[in-house]
Amino acid sequence: MTEHMFNSIYQAFDSSAKKHSQKNALIYLGEKFTYKRLETYIDQLARALYQLGMRKQDRAIIYLPHCPEWVITWLALQKLGVVVIPVTHFYGPKDLHYIANDSGAETIFCTDTNFGYITKVLDDTPLKRVIVNSIIDFLPWWKKVIGFIYDKIPSGKYKLGENIFSLQQLLKTNAPTFPNIDIDPKDIAQTLYTGGTTGFPKGVPIPNRLFLESTYEQRNSREGLIPRGKDVVIQGAPLYHILGQAVGIGALFSGDTLVLLPKMGLDAIFQHIAIYKATSFFGTPTLYRMILEHERLNKYDLSSLIYNFSGGDVLPKEVAKRWLKKFGKPIYEGYGATETCGGVALIPAGEPYPEGSVGKILSFQKIKIVDGETLEEVPAGEAGELLVSSDYMVSGYWNKPEETAGHFIELDGRLWYRTGDIVRLQDGCWLFFLDRSVDVIKHKGYRVAASKIDAVLQEHPAVVASCTVGVPDEMVGERIKAFVVVRQDIKGISSAELIKWCKDKLATYEVPQYIEFRDMLPKSKVGKLLRRELRSEERRKNEAS
Prior knowledge:
Elements: H1 9-19, E1 24-28, E2 31-34, H2 35-52, E3 59-62, H3 68-80, E4 83-86, H4 93-103, E5 107-111, H5 115-119, E6 129-133, H6 141-149, E7 164-166, H7 167-172, E8 188-194, E9 202-207, H8 208-220, E10 232-234, H9 242-252, E11 257-260, H10 266-276, E12 280-283, H11 285-292, E13 307-310, H12 317-327, E14 331-337, E15 342-346, E16 359-361, E17 366-370, E18 384-389, H13 401-407, E19 408-411, E20 414-426, E21 430-435, E22 440-443, E23 446-449, H14 450-457, E24 463-473, E25 477-486, H15 495-503, E26 514-517, H16 531-544
Parallel strand pairs: 1-11, 3-4, 3-5, 5-6, 6-7, 10-11, 10-12, 12-13, 13-14, 25-26
Antiparallel strand pairs: 1-2, 8-9, 14-15, 15-16, 16-21, 17-18, 18-20, 19-20, 20-21, 22-23, 24-25
Helix pairs in contact: 1-2, 1-3, 2-3, 8-9, 11-12
């Protein structure tokens, strides 16, 4: 039985763990976890959480950095059938407050370093159970001592009490077994929050089978280079992101080894590749460019890498060529979205493919390329908006009926997701990405909502209107530029002042790098802001320079 035939995510992991029980599943700061050891921790935690009252389709937030506890917690919750909500551990109280209330989660897993943020939102959210750990809990005592001596270990304060538990204590609890939990392939496994065209992140509920289909196809794409059970994968993208999960967690369904880094510093990545003879690496185009330009790159032996995968944005040709010249191995690309649970198209490793393609359409995904206005299919080979469908697809956004209606449509008796991306298809299978939805900016691998930035700018008393766009940039994917109209009676307002205004209200990666003042902004006859015109204008400037 292959991974995509299992009903649940935990079944897929359990099968792999039993088959590869003595192999290393995880490596973290030198500490190794066999599949047997990992499975034991997962079972212990699942029993303890069940004893605390957690049940199927409850919701729980994972608010942790990369560490073994992240993986153990995620899989223990899958075993219980709990809907997992993974979020970045960099979230502050404002974002945490929104996610907790929007998702309805009653349990949150955190570290001692971000526990303080949770205390600020507990009274105004559904959260009623907090489980805390330290990122060094699994390290031997001598490594902890060295870390503290050299001040390499971040730490924070927390106090256990009613409904505040230590994860390590739960792992030591001799909780009884619980009844078998029947999980249907269509049951929601997790909800991933993604940016988009609105000011608030949208929850994308992902069914068990869809996740398994995606991870299976992702692993299958490199099987020609690395047989299942033989791969050593460096975690190169966040575990709260679908790219990080499809490759990273997906490795555990095939008996491969996953190497986790608490921080994604380039020297640390290089060291781990060299020490553990990593064979697969994945990340965003920005990360690949940073690697190529790192001044100490030549001091490390990265020759063990066989498979390199880029996702999250379009890989610049220049980066791909430099990588191939430097290492003698290509970077393989793919195309997907959180709403499609990752891959829609992937380039199969070792197979010839047309230059510029982002991959071959995956077997479980169905696509249409349509006219964005009429939704009529365009002639073969012509450009149009990409629609995606599958048997176990995401059916809409969590708690967002208006957003769902705008992005999920019925056509020909099937539900389709409107990507908003402009693509073309060659030879019936090879996908070429041409342009993205005008309202989403890809900056350093993040999906930034242009309308969210506009909303913040328009809160400034001097601003009448604004329009934010992404400007192509080889270093970061797209730079963020805002066009602003100010009140006629306001004098002396500067771009620096507006950027500071944004810094106080937006995440670092959402702040515009440039602001240009205009007397007016382009609009359609019905008054709709023509964001695409400004993007085209910026592209023409870049091409002319």
